[in-house]
């Protein structure tokens, strides 16, 4: 019996043993195409010699130095790289060990910002239903996964949730997609009025919704309207790019494609590409300056912030991403979308095929014309995962647990190094899986 505390206590997990390129191998030698990069993590694939060399060199030279006493060359270099590549005025980078830590740091920074500038009455966050921002208590509060939240509801920060921007589910009476986007963005304004805008700290959203909806991009104009509302009421905009960032959608930062800037952005997953646990919270000079001019101390921190070995991995990864791999992700993403549409465009149970870059979602529905979801009780996502694993495809099916209404989807987030024949491999494996399950 395993003594590892597995998340799914009733699942027998296979042991992953070797990673090579876009494939994983279990302890029995069975091969799996890494169709979701774990959870949109492994953007470079496995066994990248440059990242391995960078990590090995750093661990040999200086594995760790506590940030109370030292900064380090890899941390300084990575911050410079990220700031140089980021849109807008994102000017400071706070390194952490993963996505939830990045979101938690963002929420605390936003609250402290308003304390520093003399607005301590601001205490609410507004986020969106059908989102996921992490599992620590603050991050969990801003997420919309009812099932994950319910046990902890009595001990969480109060957060209001508004609608996500999800075109085909939400458009009403022939409304254009632009009008739909404006209408759901205006829910933010209504919620601000309800709470009292002077009590609100920030609005939190994923530019492209990942785990909970399956790679759902916003409609045009939605985030511009959101930015306008945030500016009008002086609240901060926190964009969570933990999953959709680091090139996954075909640009280094997903929100570049929305033509807006953020006050705070969180990244993780693809930043370490699985070679090291690392995340980051980036903020504008203005937000940082308020702390610097005020108490001079961000009231937050962890032992492993700015970890030199993790930052060395981050540098090697970002060098590759900005050296042409992000563009490759965009090209391969278009090919994957075209292949998925060709195979499943008319499938009776596929309601939508969407996404950007190598971040794609297939919506699985009872009926493709009405988009009626499968009954969540059917546990379709679990069945798909099991069938996918036995067919040598590691993919990321979700469903039913988000708000009890929205159904099943499969999220694809393969490594950016994937080749044309691997596009065909993913599609043919998915076909086998859907033939068996749907
Ligand atoms: N934000 C988003 C958008 C995510 O997708 C995730 C992880 N799926 C997180 C935050 C939390 O990241 P982590 O699991 O590294 O704590």
Summarize the structure.
With 438 residues, the chain is an alpha/beta fold. The chain contains 13 helices and 15 strands.
Helix content: 25-40%
Task: Compute the CA-based radius of gyration.
Answer: 21 Å
First-residue to last-residue Cα separation: 34 Å
Shape: globular
SSE series: EEEHHHEHEHHEHHEHEEEHHEEHEEEH
Uncertain runs: none
Mean of the pLDDT scores? 94
Number of strands: 15
- CATH topology descriptor of the largest domain: Aspartate Aminotransferase, domain 2
Bound molecules: 4'-deoxy-4'-aminopyridoxal-5'-phosphate
- Class from helix and strand fractions: alpha/beta
Strand content: 15-25%
CATH top level class name of the largest domain: Alpha Beta
At the fourth level of CATH, the homologous superfamily of the largest domain is Type I PLP-dependent aspartate aminotransferase-like (Major domain)
Biggest pleated sheet: 7 strands, mixed
In the residues, how many domains can be counted?
2
Organism: Roseobacter cerasinus
Family: Belongs to the class-III pyridoxal-phosphate-dependent aminotransferase family.
GO molecular function: pyridoxal phosphate binding; transaminase activity
Protein name: Adenosylmethionine-8-amino-7-oxononanoate aminotransferase
């Amino acid at each position: 019996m395993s003594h590892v505390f597995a998340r799914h206590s009733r699942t027998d997990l296979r042991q992953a043993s070797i990673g090579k390129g876009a494939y994983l191998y279990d302890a029995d030698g069975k091969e799996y195409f890494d169709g979701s990069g774990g959870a949109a993590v492994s953007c470079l694939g496995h066994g990248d010699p440059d990242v391995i060399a960078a990590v090995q060199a750093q661990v040999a030279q200086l594995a760790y130095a506590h940030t109370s006493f030292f900064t380090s060359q890899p941390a300084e270099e990575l911050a410079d790289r990220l700031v140089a590549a980021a849109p807008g005025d994102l000017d400071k980078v706070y390194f952490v060990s993963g996505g939830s830590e990045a979101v938690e740091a963002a929420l605390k920074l936003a609250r402290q910002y308003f304390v520093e500038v003399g607005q301590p009455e601001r205490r609410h966050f507004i986020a969106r239903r059908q989102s996921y921002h992490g599992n620590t208590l603050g991050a969990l509060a801003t997420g919309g996964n009812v099932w994950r939240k319910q046990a902890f509801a009595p001990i969480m920060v109060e957060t209001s949730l508004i609608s996500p921007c999800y075109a085909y589910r939400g458009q009403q009476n022939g409304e254009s997609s632009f009008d739909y986007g404006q209408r759901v963005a205006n829910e933010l304004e209504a919620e601000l009025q309800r709470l009292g805008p002077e009590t609100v700290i920030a609005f939190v959203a994923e530019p492209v919704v990942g785990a909970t909806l399956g790679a759902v991009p916003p409609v045009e104009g939605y985030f511009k309207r959101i930015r306008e509302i945030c500016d009008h009421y002086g609240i901060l905009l926190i964009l969570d790019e933990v999953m959709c960032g680091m090139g996954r959608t075909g640009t280094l930062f997903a929100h570049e494609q929305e033509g807006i800037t953020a006050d705070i952005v969180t990244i993780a997953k693809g930043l370490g590409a699985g070679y090291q646990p690392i995340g980051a919270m980036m903020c504008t000079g203005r937000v940082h300056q308020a702390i610097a001019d005020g108490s001079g101390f961000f009231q937050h921190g962890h032992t492993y912030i700015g970890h030199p070995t993790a930052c060395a991995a981050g540098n090697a990864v970002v060098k590759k991403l900005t050296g042409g791999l992000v563009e490759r992700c965009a090209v391969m993403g278009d090919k994957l979308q075209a292949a998925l549409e060709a195979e499943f465009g008319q499938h009776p149970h596929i309601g939508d095929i969407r996404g950007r870059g190598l971040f794609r979602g297939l919506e699985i529905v009872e009926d493709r014309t009405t988009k009626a979801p499968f009954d969540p009780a059917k546990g379709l996502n679990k069945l798909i995962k099991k069938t996918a694993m036995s067919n040598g495809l590691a993919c990321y099916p979700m469903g039913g647990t988000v708000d009890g209404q929205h159904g099943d989807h499969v999220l694809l987030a393969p490594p950016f190094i994937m080749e044309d024949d691997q596009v065909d491999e993913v599609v043919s494996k998915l076909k086998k899986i859907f033939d068996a399950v749907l």
